[in-house]
Each structure stands twice: as C-alpha cells, then as structure tokens.
Amino acid sequence: MSRFAYVNGVFHPHADASVHIEDRGYQLADGVYEVWAVFDGRLADAEGHFARLDRSLSELRIPAPMSRAALKIALKETLRRNRVRDGLVYLQVTRGVARRDHAFPAPGTPPSIVITAKSVDRAAAEAKAAKGAAVITVPENRWGRCDIKTVGLLPNVLAKQAAREAGAVEAWFVDDLGLVTEGASSNAWIIDKEGRLRTRDTQANILRGITRATLLQVIADEGLKLEERPFTVEEAKSAREAFITGAGTLVLPIVKVDNQVLGDGKPGPVAKRLRELYIQKVRAAAW
User: Fold this and answer.
1) CA-CA distance, 55 to 68, in Å (whole number)?
2) Catalytic: which of 149, 160, 256, 272?
3) 0.90 cut: is pTM over it?
4) N or C end of the chain: smaller count of CB under 10 Å?
5) Can 193 be counted among the known catalytic residues?
C-alpha cells in the first residue's frame, strides 16, 4: 500500500515528502508534536490531544498553523489516504523556515506542519500486553520543561535505545532523589504493596499524558484508590503491579523493572482490567 504524508498543505508520497533544510525543527528542534491513537479510523482522546497541542504551541509562542477545524480535516484525510483503521497519526508543527539563528525569525514567518499515519497490528499489541513487558531505569537528564511536548527528544532517544539494548520496551527516568519521573515516551504507574495505584503528579516536570488523564477518569469511575505521588525505584521493584500509559502503548503491563521480576512475572489483574476499560472508553468516544 502506498503511504502519503501531509506537508504544509500538500499531500506527497511518503517516500518523497521532505522539509526545507532550514526548517527550525530540523536545525534547532524548535517545534512540538502530538500523537493520536486511532481506532476504527477514528481519533482516540481527540480533544485532550488538541488541547495539549494548543498549550505546547502557546508555551513556545509558535502560532497555530491553521484552525482546529481545518486541522481535524487534515488529520482525517491523512488517515483516509493511508487507509489506517487502527494505528497512530503523528502531527508536528515547527516555527517554520528561516535563515539559521537562535532567536525567533521575523514576525509573520509561517509555521511548518507535517502529518503522517501508520497502521498498528492490534492483535500483536494485545499479545504483547498479555505477556507483559520490561522497563529499565536511567538517570534523569532532561530539561526543565518536560510538560511541553517538544521535538527536542535526544535524552529520550538515548534512554529508549538503552532500553532496547537491554531487551526492555521502556526506560524510566529517575531523579536525584531516587524517584521515578516518567518514561521516555510514557507515564509510569505502580500498584504498591498496599494496593494503591500511584503515579507522579503532573506538576513535577513530567508530560501531561492524555492517556494518563483518561485513565484517571476510568480509575475514578471504578472507585480505585489512587495517589498522585512519586515512587522510588525500590518501591517499583517491590510493587504488586506496574504499567505504562501512552498513545502508542495504551495501558501496557510491566512485569520486570531492571532485573527484578514483579510478582509472578505475569501481568496483574488491575493493569489488565484497566487496559480493557481504557480501550472500551476511548473506542466508544473516538471520532
């Protein structure tokens, strides 16, 4: 199947799509991005991702490339042209093309926008979730504005590569106090020895995960005990269960932290149930 990419108002064959060499995203990581999960050709957690995109653009003072209504059309058309029923759609907005200079370009410089989409094998994803996955821990070395979903992801890239080389799916960043902040591309959760769900609060320089926010609603609806407070690596290793959340992973059970197997080495009942409930909720509300 041919793939297509949307670049600054025009659809191109994916293999031929390109951006200018002086695009500020390419040269300075001066841009933001969003990723939506797609179910049955529809966007999951749509409004949450749009709201976070607006916030990221505002925090970096990058003008919106188009109205939200127009952006919705572009996203849906990208999905249609790529025949994506279940998968992911990626959006990137940069400050635009200008002669290289650290300071902002002249007012009126139009932002650049790129949209791509790809299919995901949901059956394979469910098989992976049923088996559970591993994470490793790495020192926190990112900048102080991880709440902005910027394309400046080099520490995340190195952490994710370290995880891959260790046979893990994710790396959890650990701060100077020995507390887990979040994953390289996900939010981190445990169910501690007392049976309480725990995840770090979003005031602690972590990304305001949209999957995380929806799962909080699910947890409240189920009446489960939740504490938005950090946990140590040792608490994670002794937890009853653990999992990560994100648009790409949804709710993915974790069965090993570094070299420590959690419980009996199988996904726990709470994580498995939360995955089911999350998927049900976002599938029903997707558009």
Assistant:
1) 13
2) 149
3) yes
4) N
5) no
